[in-house]
Specification:
Chain lengths: 537, 334
Amino acid sequence: MKARKLVVAFLVIAALMVNIVGCGGGKETENKASEGKGNDKVFVFARSGDASGLDPINVTDGESLYVTQQIFDTLLDYEEDSTEVKPALATEWENSKDGKEWTLKLRKDVKFHDGTPFNAEAVKFNFDRWRDEKNPYHQGDFAYYTAMFSGFPGVIKDVVVVDEYTVKFVLTKPMAPFLANLAMATFGMSSPEAIKKYGEDYFKNPVGTGPFKFVKWEKDQQVVVEKNPEYWGQKAKVDRIVFRTIPDNSARLLELKAGTIDAMIGLNPDDIQTVKDDSNLQLMLRPSMNVGYLAMNMEKKPLDNVKVRQAINYAVNKQAIIDAFYGGLAKPAKNPLPPSLWGYNDNVKGYEYDPAKAKALLAEAGFPNGFKTTLWAMPVARDYMPQPKEIGQAIQQDLAKVGIDAKIVTYDWTTYIQKGEKGEHDLYLFGWTGDNGDPDNFLFYLLDKTNTVKGSAGNVSFYRDDRVSALLTEAQQESDQAKRAKLYEQAQVLVSEHAPWVPLVHSTPPIAAKKSITGWLPHATGTECFVSLDKAE
Amino acid sequence: MTRYIIKRLLGLIPVIIGVSICAFLLIHLIPGDPARAILGERATPESLAAVREQLGLNDPLHIQYLRFMGQLIQGDFGRSVITNSLVIEEFAERFPATMELSIAAMTIAILVGVLAGVISAVKQYSWFDNISMIGALFGVSVPIFWLGLMMQWLFAFKLGLLDASARLSVELRLDNITNFYVLDSILTGNWEALFDSLKHLILPSLALATIPMAIIARMTRSSMLEVLRQDYIRTARAKGLKEKVVIFRHALKNAFLPVLTVMGLQFGTLLGGAVLTETIFSWPGIGRLMYEAIMQRDFPVVQSGILIISLIFVFINLVVDILYSFVDPRIRVN
């Protein structure tokens, strides 16, 4: 039969395809990522998204900042294991008596990757570009500048070149978190010459002073940086870093297990155990600098009643949520501040899980049979809330046990934020990841009464308390850290008592890496420099 | 023929205008403020106002549309509001990836699909027919993300034969000329890269090929069955022609027209980017670009992107229509 020949032809083609496939056999998958060109030590790091840009001042996402952190230095830096500041490009600093002038001494032995010198002029150039909307190189949104320094030009009135290696910042008012802000990865120092040369395309041609130099960026695939042999500080231990984009969490873990990548972030909570069980892999936890919370809109009845809010606090079983949705990798929260920050008040008792007490409080408040409300769940996963809808459902069930009937509501992400800022919600799942490690960055933004303007509220409980506000404002003006810590501790006592939120968790985002990776110190701010990272052969 | 092509090209103008209006309205009318998407959770009222002004979002919709079309006519597709890079560059960077993947997937789909369809029709109700049609049903219904992960697990992780993601291993360097990696590695004589890029290409193209392969197989089978019952086939056989000639020269050629239509439509769809396949296999193509742009309300990328993809789709259809006339001379006459 002729048809048999067709079958044969079909099988031959199939066999050929298998053969092409088969030629790849015998490859060692185990150490593939470590095979470099020659003897290069290459560290391959994968995450779910690509960088959106490589000009650190014009990005706010971790994917971008992870790369720019390797290429750029900041004037100050954070200690490896805390958010206290330490010298970096600036070696000394001094505050004037009135608190409005900061004078910084700069390192003298620093060059940008393009060979141009780093000096006070370069610092001024960078700040002027960020602050001044009329500056010819002010191209972009500079979102972090306006967020941290309150608009353009914001708190920084002027930047003065005192001499070649001394620069002075003149502020409109004393600003306690000023130094902590300078240490943020987003305020990395760019080469003025490179900015002038590349203009609007600087975001894909970054030039800094950091331990790694930019090599290439293939969109949605990889960003490559290589060791800067002329780095002023401790030199990098690996020769190249490849930041790969692998969008699917499961596919990324498969690659790690296959050995084609060295490390990854963005693990499914269910996969944490898989990593723990794999003898070739290690699990690292990033110290928490975030909080996931349930905000209660105090403008809506009956959430205006403090007893109702306290009852809801007693009704939610935080530990069950952590076990079910965080793979056990989170701390139950009792304060808005994460414990890794100075100023955290560990004496606050918080609300333990106690449905009976919740019912009693509801009855006292006049709702013995509970009430109906809405529970808003975020549509996207965040480190502080990896499975918002499921967490919403868990809370819904907890509330049902004390008689509260909560309907789950959700919108697309931007609409969700917008409606929240307008105060359209009742119960609202949300969270915050800190920027600069200063308590002000959490407490003032999330709970001060001035941040309750409809349409742009950061305080989505619409919690307005004069005593708390007075404490937070005083702490902003005070420059002595010990005194500030005291003020924040007092504020946390009041916040806990008034219960504008159910503080849910402080998550510790996991990092999975091969056992051969050493010297990686995950930092609370969310990104860290890989200068001391090494890879055993 | 030339007149026909010109007529078809002129017919594109209303299509482009229609598509541009749809694309523009789609991204501007869905909820979600681009200014907020850019600034994220840390937006202040001042920065929101400044960004809205900068993007021209405060103007009435029709003014925004006219501005968009005005720029388009000058060949300016705009800049991404998220990354600030030129939309046309973003597309140019990713299009070869999508094209390479689509061509590979279509090649597999056509080879396997047509052959399976023909054999199934010739040997109707045989074991081969049954198995391949069940396979085709599986092919159209299996979720790609599941199939993709299973293939990665088996071929990349368990067997270590193929690569699970990206277009090239990180340790390899390839000089890019066309950005089609297979082609570039041949042009530069870089055999290591050729082999490596093929190993990266096989899994995603197999995953992407499943649906078109299944559709083509079913289409070929039903179309062949119809043709094989016609009188001229009986005549051809009665003349004593070899069965191979009857099937491939007489039957398949006539049965091919509907199959060609399906191929064109499927290829056009693939070129629009396959979000799921590209996500699972970390393939840096158009689908992911568009998906992320929509999620971030990056409206210049979305509206120009939809327009570009639509143009490609329309163009492929035009090519298919022209191909018809070669397959079926009756169309040329009319």
